[in-house]
Amino acid sequence: MRRSAVSERRFDLWGVPFDGASTLGWPGSRYAPEKVRAALRWMLMRAQDERVYSIDTGRLHPFPTDLLRIRGDADVVAHDLMASLQACSAAVAASVAESRVPIVIGGDDSLLYACVKGFHDSHEGSIGILHFDAHLDLMDENRQQGRFSQSSGMRRALELPRVSAEHSIQVGVRNFNFPSSHEFIERIGLAEMPATEFHELGPAAAADRILSRLDGCDHVWWAFDIDVVDPSAAPGAGAHEPGGLTSRQVLDCVRLLAYRCEGLSIVEVNPLMDAHDMTSILAANLVFNFAVFGQAPQMGPL
């Protein structure tokens, strides 16, 4: 099938400035949406005559004037976790209702569940989750964090009726976690690609394995916690885990995988912990690449 025969996608960028569930690590991700939008303006000005030049691919790529619509912030309620999760879900659903691909900048990682819920409730068929994160986020509940915390987003999302563990994968996870999380992974058949394995494979082979895992599900949401990237390249994160992916690796993954995903959330960017806005700039680059390389769905990387 020729690309011209495929309906080209358009994207919405939402901010969700909520970090009320940052009970572990550092709060401050509420300030990320405005910082990322500011960094994104540097890239948006490079589009000319509805095209942009990718030095990485050596090609001119389409960049229509309506490719990436800036939607502002969801109507979060700073003191109310559940109301804020609902506001995030509503923003995602609003974009899907207009046949646009939602991109969400958080905010803390409790928003993983909210994004997937809004996406799930707006589609028929099975949902796969592509989860890039240093941590598993499979906590059921505990006294300090409750059930809808930044440590429980993936667990709650997997409980949605049509979310398929069989078509979901966690990428870049590393170091240590709870034995109960291992038991849950084994019980539901969730796939893992630890950072150690990713480094051995490289982005191209890793992307092939990821696509094989996603094959067969109807829709895919990409949940991206910025701490999947090594702290040396993303110091402005809610928590630091050494041994992460490089900025080059995650940018390559966006180019290779964006076409397969129908939504993207980037969470835990924390300007209060950042150095010279480098993490916000990386997040903006991820957004821009997702829009450029995700225009033609189901057709493989441009």
What are the defining features of this structure?
single chain, 302 residues, Arginase, Chain A, eight-stranded parallel sheet, two-stranded antiparallel ribbon, 16% strand, disordered N terminus
**SSE topology string:** EHEEEHEHEHEHEHHEHEH
Instruction: Work out the count of structural domains.
Output: 1
Low-confidence stretches: 1-6
Q: Count the DSSP helices.
A: 9
Helix content: 25-40%
Number of strands: 10
Strand order of the largest sheet: 4-1-5-10-9-6-7-8
Q: What class do helices, strands and sheet pairing give? A: alpha/beta
CATH superfamily: Ureohydrolase domain
Text of the CATH class: Alpha Beta
**What portion of residues belong to β-strands?**
15-25%
Please state the average pLDDT score: 95
Query: What Rg do the Cα atoms give?
Result: 18 Å
What's the main sheet like? Answer: 8 strands, parallel
Any idea what the shape is? globular
CATH topology: Arginase, Chain A
| Distance N to C terminus | 14 Å
| Assigned CATH architecture | 3-Layer(aba) Sandwich
List the helices and strands and how they pair.
Blueprint: E1 11-16, H1 32-44, E2 51-54, E3 59-62, E4 68-73, H2 81-97, E5 101-106, H3 111-120, E6 127-132, H4 153-158, E7 169-171, H5 179-188, E8 191-193, H6 195-201, H7 203-214, E9 219-225, H8 247-257, E10 264-267, H9 278-293
Parallel strand pairs: 1-4, 1-5, 5-10, 6-7, 6-9, 7-8, 9-10
Antiparallel strand pairs: 2-3
